[in-house]
């Protein structure tokens, strides 16, 4: 089955470019478009896409507000934030509101395709142009208490969380821990549920905020 995608951007030319890029792939189908956040929410409720590519700066209802509304749905789509503006306000606002990925509009089209496919598989993707800043910001924070996570999670789930924070995929985590990839998926689902986190990206942020992420020098 094709990955069903809704595109939300207030500029028709950008929507056209996104539609051409995404719709040209055999495994991706653009099922709806929106010119503002409110219309994007309506399109999602009507079209039930797998992934939403959401511009953040739009009139009436902005992208971050729309992401927040969609994240509150019983079965929200995966959301990829897309913006021209390389600022912390947009980066952290989108991820903390429930986006699973963040890309700048000047990113290579291949990265957009990779991001849509990664989100559909349940992974997250942050533009390499801002990844270092994301990590550095949380590395500078005074870590919140990790006690709550250690009480809620099993030892194995904590290990998986730390490897998520290193940016490893499920397959890589399975190889490191010498377990099945399906078992890793179960651990990821369990730790997200126990910590009330909507996405893997939010789990990475949580790990940095609570001092559970490895330091840069760690293997």
UniProtKB/TrEMBL annotation:
Pfam families referenced in this protein's UniProt entry, alphabetically: GerE, Response_reg
InterPro entries associated with the record: CheY-like_superfamily, NreC/VraR/RcsB-like_REC, Sig_transdc_resp-reg_C-effctor, Sig_transdc_resp-reg_receiver, Tscrpt_reg_LuxR_C, WalR-like
Residues with the 4-aspartylphosphate modification: 55
SUPFAM superfamilies: C-terminal effector domain of the bipartite response regulators, CheY-like
Stretches assigned to the Response regulatory domain: 4-120
Superkingdom field: Bacteria
GO terms assigned for molecular function: DNA binding
PROSITE patterns in the record: HTH_LUXR_1 (PS00622), HTH_LUXR_2 (PS50043), RESPONSE_REGULATORY (PS50110)
Sorted UniProt keywords: DNA-binding, Phosphoprotein, Transcription, Transcription regulation
Domain HTH luxR-type per the UniProt entry, residue ranges: 146-211
A single GO BP: phosphorelay signal transduction system
PANTHER family linked to this entry: TRANSCRIPTIONAL REGULATORY PROTEIN NARL-RELATED (PTHR43214:SF24), TWO-COMPONENT RESPONSE REGULATOR (PTHR43214)
The protein's name: DNA-binding NarL/FixJ family response regulator
Organism whose genome encodes this protein: Sphaerisporangium krabiense
């Amino acid at each position: 089955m094709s990955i069903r995608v809704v595109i939300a951007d207030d500029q028709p030319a950008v929507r056209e470019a996104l539609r051409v890029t995404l719709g040209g792939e055999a495994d991706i189908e653009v099922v709806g478009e929106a010119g503002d956040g409110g219309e994007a929410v309506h399109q999602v409720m009507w079209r039930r896409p797998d992934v939403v590519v959401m511009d953040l700066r739009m009139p009436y209802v902005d992208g971050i507000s729309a992401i927040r509304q969609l994240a509150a749905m019983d079965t929200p789509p995966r959301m990829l934030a897309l913006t021209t503006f390389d600022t912390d306000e947009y980066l952290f606002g989108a991820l903390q509101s429930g986006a699973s990925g963040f890309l700048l509009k000047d990113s290579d089209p291949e990265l957009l395709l990779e991001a849509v496919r990664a989100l559909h598989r349940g992974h997250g993707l942050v533009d390499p142009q801002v990844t270092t800043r994301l990590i550095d910001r949380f590395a500078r924070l005074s870590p919140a208490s990790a006690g709550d996570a250690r009480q809620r999670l099993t030892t194995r789930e904590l290990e998986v969380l730390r490897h998520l924070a290193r940016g490893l995929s499920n397959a890589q985590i399975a190889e490191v821990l010498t377990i099945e990839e399906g078992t890793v998926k179960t651990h990821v689902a369990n730790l997200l549920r126990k910590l009330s986190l909507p996405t893997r990206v939010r789990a990475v942020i949580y790990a940095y905020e609570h001092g559970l992420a490895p330091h840069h020098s760690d293997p």
